[in-house]
Structure formats: C-alpha cells, structure tokens
Amino acid sequence: MELLKTLQELNACFGPSGEEKEIRECIRRIAPGRIDEVRVDALGNLILRRKGSGPKVLFAAHMDSIGLIVTHIEKEGFLRFGNIGGLVAENILHATVRFKNGVRGTIVPDQSADRTKLSLNDLYVDIGAESEQQASSLIRIGDTAVYDAPANLAGGRIISPYLDNRISCIALLWAMEQIGESANDLYFVFTVQEEPGLRGAKPAAFEIDPDYGIVCDVTPAGDQPGSKHYGSSSLGGGAAIKVMDTSVICHPDMVDRLRALAEAGSIPYQNDVIVRGGTDAGPIHTTRGGVQTGGISVPCRYIHTPQEMADAEDVTHCASLMAAFAMSRLPARS
Amino acid sequence: MIELIKELCAVPGVSSFEDEIRARIEREIRPHASDVRTDAVGNLIAFKRGAKRADHPLMITAHMDEVGFIVKKIDDKGFVRFAPVGGIDRRTVIGKKVLIGKHRIPGAIGLRAYHLVSAKEEKIVPDIADMYIDIGAADQKQAQSLVSIGDEIVFDSDFVEFGDGMIKAKALDDRIGCAAMIHLIQKELPIDCAFVFTAQEETGARGAFGATFSIRPRIALVLEGTTAADVPSVKGHRRVTCAGEGPVLGVMDRGAIYDRDLFERLRHLADNRGIPWQTKRFIAGGTDAQAIQTTAGGVQVAAISVPVRYIHTSSSVASIRDCHHMVELAEAFIHSVAEDPGAKSE
Amino acid sequence: MSNLPTLLTSLSSIPGPSGFEHDVARRAVELMRPLTDEACVDGFGNACGILRGTQPGALRIVIAAHLDEIGFIATGVEQGFLRFSTIGSVDPRMLPGREVTVMTDPPIPGVITCLPPHVLSEEEMDLAFPREDLFIDVGFSHEETVTRIPVGTPAVYRAGCFPLGEDLFCGKAMDDRACFCAGLLALEMLQNAALPHDVVLLGTTREETNFGGAKTGTFALDPDVCLALDVTHAETPDGGPKNTDCVLGGGPAVGYGPNMTPRIRDALIAAANAENIDIQREVMPGKSYTDAWEMQVSREGIPTAILSLPTRYMHTPMETISLSDLRATADLLVAFLKQPHGEEVAE
After folding, report:
1. What percent of chain C is modeled with pLDDT above 90?
2. pLDDT one-digit tens code per residue, A122-145
C-alpha cells in the first residue's frame, strides 16, 4: 500500500463528520490482512475484528474530516456556512472547497469585514452562482463541503489536506498489514465524528469493552519558526508516544510499555505532550470501568489548514509500533 | 393543543425542581401508557405499546424543565440574592416578576431607578451576582421566614394569545414539546414507543444520559424549542429560524450532528404532506440529543423543534401553527419508522 | 490516625498530579486496609476501600474524595531549563520563584523562573507572567536536563505543611486529600457500627482534569447513593460575601442545586441537626466542578449529594483548612451513614 496513492484515494472520498459513508466504504475495501468480523454501528463507526483468545485491544483512528456545512443562501447566491470541527477563519480564507456532488467553490470574506479580526461569520462560499435561485439548483442547505487541495510529496515529507486523520488511517492500515501472529483479540476501529467532539469513539468503545486502547491521530508539532510550543514533537523525530493531550493523560504503565516496545524494535520515537487538542483517547480511556489507553501519533504541521505536512518515515514508525503492540504479550485486565 | 400548552406553561419546573410539572404530565399520560416510572435524576418515562412489538422501542423525548433561578442567600436587609439555573441572558432579567419557593412568594427583580443612573451606567447591565429580588420583607428575619436558601425561583408570566396565531408565555421551551408528546401518547401507535419527559436538560442534558442508558433505543426523536431571531434588527443568517415558517428539522447544532438519513426521512415526510419546515441558519445551541447520541452503544438521533422568539426569557413567543405541524410531522415519523426502521448497523 | 496534622502531612507530601496518582493511591489503600474488608487500587487507578454491610443485597453508598492535585508537566528543554505546561487549573500568579519537585526517580528540585525587576518595564511589573515565558530551573546543563528529565515528566509544588494558629492547617493538596482524611476518620469511627449497607470510600483520580476516576470508579461500583467530598471557597478579605457564603470554622457545607438530589441533601441536613453539627450551605446552580457531576449521570443515574470543606487559597501551595471543620465533616459522614437508607432510594 503506497503512501501517496493511498492518501489520494482516501482524500478523493467525501467524509466530513456525520457523512462518513464514502470513506468508510473505501477503507473497508482496502483494509488488508485477515478480518474475521465486520460491523458498522448506529453512528457509522467501522469495526474490523481479528479474533484472538487474549486480551481485547482496540485500535482507533478517526476517518471523519473537518468541513463546512451550508446554513443559509444569500439572495446574491453566496453561501453562509457553519464549521464541522475546528475551523479558523484565517486558515481557510481563499481555500477551494468541493461538495459531495462535485460543485466547487472558494471561501471569501465579506468585503467590509475587519481583516485583523476575521471570524467564520465574516466568510461566504462563492460557488459562482448569480442568484439565490441558481445557487439552490446546485446546493441545498445542510450540504457539506471539504477542502479541495492536492497531495504532494516534498522531499521525505508529504503535503496534503486531511493528514488529520487520513495519514493515521493509513498508518493503522499498514499496521494491519504487518501484524502477524497475535494472541490478542484485535479490533481496528475507524471512528466517526471525532472532529466536532470525540463523539464516535465513545459508543464504539462501550460496545467493545476493550482491555487496552491505542489511538492513532496526528499531533501538532512544535518545530516551526516562532513556535509557541503547543506540542513537544518534531517532524522526523519518530512515532509520537502520547503522554498528555487535553482529553487524556495516558497511564504511565502504557507509556512505559510503548517506549519499551519501541526500544526493543529499534523504532524511533518521541514523547508527546500537547497543550491544545484532544483525541479519541479521551472517551476511550473512561469507558465503563476504565481502559488503559495510549496514543501513537504522527507529528503534523499546519493542522486543519488545507495543506498539512507530515514526515513519511514517521508514518512508517507509527505503523511498526502499533504492530508491535498488537503482537506483544499483554497481561489480562485486573 | 393551545389549552394544554397554556396549562403546562403555568406550572413551575426549573431544572431539578420538576416535581410539580412531572406530576401534572403524569396525570395526563397515565391512562394511555402501559408502564410509567420516575428515575433517579427525575425523568418521567412512559412506555406505550404499539401495534408492532419492538426489541428496542422508539424513544421520543421532550424536556420538562425550564430555565429559572435559585436562591443563593438572603442578605442582611431582607433582599434575595440569586443565581441563574440554565442559560439566561442577564440583559433580560432586570425588572421581571418572579415566584419563589413552594409558597410561590412573589418578588420583583429590582434595580436602581432610571433617574438615579448615569448615562454611562445605563449602557451596562450588571452581573446577576449584583442583582437582587425584593420580596417586600421588612428585614432579614422576615425574609427568612418566607423563603430559604436553595429555593426555586421561576418567572411569573401568564399565557397570552395574540396577533395572528401567536402565543406568549414562559417556558414555551419546552412545554410545547411536552404537549406534543402528550398528544402523541394518546393516539394508537404502530410501534412500541418510550416517551421520556426528561429532567435537567437546561443544565446540560443531564437527565437524558440515564434515560437512554436504561432504554437503549436505536432511534430517538427529540421534540424541542429552538431560537428564533426573526426581528427587523437581525439580518440574514443570524435570524437562525423564523416563527411561523414551520418546525425546524435538526441538521447540526453545537451538541450533535443529527443522523443524515433521519433528517432526509423527515424532509421527505414533510414535503409529501405539505408541512412547512426549515433548518437552522446558524449553528448554535444543543438538545438532549447530545447526551442520547453517544450513550451506551450509540443512537441515531433526529430532532423536530418549534421556533421560539425571546427563548429563555419570561415572555417567549411562538406560532401555534408551528406547534400543530410539529405533532403532525412527529406522528408521520413514528409511522414511517414502524414501516421501515432503516437500521444503520450491520 | 487521630493525629490529624500528621495524617494530612503524610498524604499531602506524596507527589500525585492528575494522571500520576500511583503513589498516593497506594498510600491511600494502605491507610484504608485496616479499616475496611477490602482495599485495593481499581482498574483505573482509583483507591477503593469497601466496608461491607451486614445485610446481603443491601444498598451500596459510595463516598468519593479525589487524590490528585494540580501540577506541571515537562514539554521540552531550552538552554537547560525545562519548558512546562500545567495539569489542571494552576493559578499563574503563584508561579514566579515557586519551588517545585520534578517527579523523576529520585526527585529533582527546581525553581520556576522569574525576571528580576530591573529588566521589566513599569507596565510589565504589574502583570502576572504568562506561563509560556516561565521555565523550571533545575540547575543542570542542557545535556544533563535532556537526559534526566524526558518530555512528559510531571512535577508538583514542593511539599510542606504547617499549622496556622490553633485550628488552621496549611499546605498543598488539601484539595482534596483533606477530604479523603475526613473519609478515613469516618471509616475509623464506623469500625464497630455493623451497618446494614455497604460503605465505599473511593479515592478518585483525575478529578482536576476530566473527573475520569469518578466516572469509571462509579461505573465499576454501580452504587445506589453517591456522596462527593470536595473543598469549597472560604471567605478571605478580598473574597468576601459576593464570592462565597462559607467561612473557616463554620462547619462543612451542604450543597444545594441541580447536581444534588434533594432527599440525599436533606438526609445530610437531618443528620447534622440530630447530632448538633454546625453546617453551612452552598448553592451551586449548574456544573458543580466536583466528582458528583459525573457520578450523578452514571449508568441510569444515581441519587447524589455534595459535602464541602471550606478552604482558603484553593489551588495554591498554601491551601488552608480548619481542623475542626475536618473533624465535623467526618462526624457528619458517620451520622449520615448510620441513618437507614432503604426508604430513600425506594421509587
């Protein structure tokens, strides 16, 4: 499974939070290796199980993406929108977006808005319609749109929209390819609705009731010029082993276990503490009586902009570490 | 419908003080339900058998509670200091009439007379912590004999029909939804339904968690009141919804993204029956759906809401036609689900 | 056990910020073991002590007090100084020049930096330092710091407790280990009570971040009644009647509001009146920011109440409580638990 091609294939799928059907079907199609059970739950989470007699391990990577939702059509044919997940006005200005039906538009500001204090309420999507009537023939209120930008390689790095979280989905798919013999009962869950509030993982984890959880997401790197160090990891520094984000503090035993596996497998890794941003690990670790949960993340720059950046080697290392965990001998839950 | 809404709005029921409104609702529904109970947080849960059995009943909910206030302390001069329960815009609070505690002691949320206020001051609204309620007590001791710390404080506002089919009252959010549920439970239904009158929605959908956990529905329909800002000074999308233009079908709010398939189903049902409908032009607010959707193994959620102007104030306003349409559409939804559950899970 | 200052000091001194409560939980279990039928650290890391009731199938009442404290976590190294973030809500005004303990093995002492007056402008002098401009000085070279203190290592305020006057006691983590001590005192007093119902003292984790311990611990125990013990603000010269209704020495505060089920709250008040225990009242109109917020909505919902210990200077290293309030809290717990609880939960 080659990185750029797979990323382009996933990005071609429409999958903003709440409408993950296309991306779910794509992942289901390309998921490698032995899969004993496939389930789609009430919210649309994709659960792929590889049975084992040992402890249950839940691997989670969210497949939904941020996007826009049309809330109102102005009489001049411009579209007002709300955010699905975290959008910042200055990051999306003049981005190209595409709707599920292929209609494209660009995000533009209200001409009298204060450019120094732009908010989402100051923005419209211009789909080239001349009137409300023409716009309504192309788009309905409630329709959603995603970034329409290319994925490219740049040196050993990749520039693309939706590395959050398609790059992690690929890491998990690569891990599924690499996992050989394992006594553990493995659940590979591609979750929904993470972006608007970590919603899909909660019922998925409740239903599975795992002994361990590993979440694969991107994590903000702190290695750009003028960085305020909201994240401690760097591109190329290896798999980011999560210690803390705003939704979870990973149990020290889990962090130690992952570090030991990385050392034993000579997998480059770095310790990851971020000050902004939560992940599916949040709802998973407080499921029922609690689940020992860790995070293996791909360090990423410019998250939630149309062009995010990650290091290709880091993705490989994340996959290797996840595979190592899947194959490791794990104690039964106390 | 109007009479029922009028009666329900008159009953006090600030979040966590739902005993009276619950009793009133229970009286209405008991003859029509096979099983009625109250749970630990105070939800009223009624099962109604339908023509078709269901492993997982269709859950239909509306919240019983309204926003209001709670007595924090009685100061040394006999004035009552208070805090809001649920989201209340403090700019709508001054100068309103309230009723305090079980004995419904009347009070006025007082303020310094306009003549005594500087031009600068009149532009600023004080914090609720600085406001006070005058119950006409001579001193602290007398006040303490009338009201107590922790007492419920509810808006005192009557029911008025005015204009072209418009109604004004406190607590239209969500006594309208409760009235709709009472109408529905009296009908012959095609499928087993669980009618949940939730408690403490206004303080964070608190009742919905436990009710959903015990019922474990596959599908839930929330009947609510939602903001309408269709007044002249508000333009375009900021109007959110418009009173009189039909019930609002839930697409997305700050608490939940509603199930797409259920939204499409509601849309088709409404179009086929000539029921007007609208969606929110601005993503804001939340309903019990935010608790229901991710409880236990997950639930597909849908919402039908009536636009309410001046929501969460003592004088909220809605269109009675929207209320009728809500019931009509909800009933159509129940029949549609009975025929074709369209279950998501595989 | 009865030497309260010693007990408080021993619990306070163990570093245990949210997520890293292992040592505190272990100590809590050791303290509960002689007082309960079963004491252990549960699957999530909470300390759990069960005093079984005499009646089979009797009610289960859970008393929760959180063991975690606020703290810091290392996020990087710059010129040998530790860059850090906070765990829980840390008052930034407390930080400049503050002594901390970095939780390596063995622990490393450090000082949070501050700029001397002569490099600050007059306007800057009036403002609290933004956290991003502060570092922890551990006194090592850059390489030493990188080796000894990996990113993700937690830290806490340096320990130290002391009495103030006759009745007050001051130190870090009184929030909420002082309440846990009240729970221990109550268990001590219940040793021969032979109550019909189960009593569980749950030392929860992660209260300061996401109430994770209360959520999971309550789910696992599946109780019939929950009572959260936490601290509440007591009056200070600059935080008077507008901010709080409680004073040190006025007794524990019973909570009123949506997070507290009226009949459980009323049972607490009845118990206080019967035993002549002075209580105060605290109205919480919305989210209580205590373990009770999660406990109340566990599973199908649970009748819940909150009892609070008045505290000055919350979330600083000098949290101050009244020892007589603490003892009164324990007395009230005992009186409440000795009441019959069958009829309260009957629907």
Report:
1. 82
2. 999 999 999 999 999 999 999 999
- How does pLDDT run across A274-327, given as a tens digit for each residue? 999 999 999 999 999 999 999 999 999 999 999 999 999 999 999 999 999 999
Strand segments, DSSP code E, in chain A are 37-40, 46-50, 56-62, 67-73, 79-84, 96-99, 104-109, 123-126, 144-147, 152-154, 157-160, 185-191, 212-215, 218-220, 239-244, 269-273, 292-301, 308-311
Tell me: the pLDDT tens digits for B79-118? 999 999 999 988 889 889 999 999 999 999 987 777 777 7
> What pLDDT is stored for residue A3 in this prediction?
95
* pTM of the full structure: 0.93
- AA letter at C200: V
Tell me the count of A-C CB pairs closer than 8 A.
77
Interchain CB distance below 8 Å, A80 and B263: no
What's the whole-number average pLDDT of chain C? 92
Q: What percent of chain B has pLDDT over 70?
A: 99
Alpha helices in chain C (DSSP H): 4-12, 22-32, 122-126, 142-148, 174-189, 212-221, 262-274, 292-295, 323-338, 342-345
For A246-256, how does the pLDDT look when each residue is reduced to its tens digit (9 = 90+)?
999 999 999 99
CA-to-CA distance for A283 and B300, rounded, in angstroms?
Answer: 19
> Residue B120: what pLDDT?
79
- Give me the interface pTM, i.e. the ipTM: 0.90
Average pLDDT over residues B9-14: 97
Which residues partner with A185 through β-bridges? A56
What the block records as the tokens of A280 is: 């599916």
CATH number of C4-69+172-345: 3.40.630.10
CATH number of A3-65+162-327: 3.40.630.10
Query: What is the set of domains in chain B, with CATH numbers?
Result: 2-66+170-339 (3.40.630.10), 68-155 (2.40.30.40)
* Biggest CA-to-CA distance, chain C: 71
Phi, psi of C314 (to 5 degrees): -60, 140
| Domain assignments of chain C as residue spans, ordered by start | 4-69+172-345, 71-157
The one-character DSSP state at A249 is B
CB B187 within 8 A of CB B331: yes
Q: What is the pLDDT of residues A18-39, one digit of tens each?
A: 999 999 999 999 999 999 999 9
CA dist., res. C48 & res. B162, Å (int): 60
- The neighbour count for residue A288, using CB atoms within 10 Å, is 16
Residue A39, classified by CB atoms within 10 Å of its CB into exposed (0-12), middle (13-18) or buried (19+), is middle
A17, A44, A203: residue with CB nearest B296: A203
Q: Are A29 and A48 in contact (CB under 8 A)?
A: no
Q: Per-residue pLDDT for C346 more than 60?
A: no
CA torsion, ordered C206, C207, C210, C215, to nearest 10 deg: 90
Pick B294's closest partner by Cβ from A39, A84, A202: A202
Across chain B, which distance is largest between two alpha carbons, in Å? Answer: 69
Say which residues have a Cβ less than 8 Å from residue C57's Cβ, sequence separation at least 6.
none
Nearest-CA distance C302 → chain B (Å) = 6
Show the DSSP H helices in chain A as ranges.
3-12, 21-30, 89-92, 132-138, 163-178, 201-208, 252-264, 281-285, 312-327
Q: Do C75 and A333 touch (CB under 8 A)?
A: no
Bridge partners (DSSP) of residue A212 are A57, A292
CATH topology of domain A67-147: Elongation Factor Tu (Ef-tu); domain 3 (2.40.30)
User: How far, in Å, CA of B255 to CA of B290, rounded?
Assistant: 5
Residue in A271, A282, A289 closest to C152 by CB = A271
Give the separation between CA C46 and CA C32, rounded to whole angstroms: 13
A172-229 residue pLDDT tens = 999 999 999 899 999 999 999 999 999 999 999 999 999 999 999 999 999 998 888 8
* Chain B interface with A: residues with Cβ < 8 Å: 218, 236-238, 251-252, 256-258, 260, 263, 279-283, 293-300, 343-346
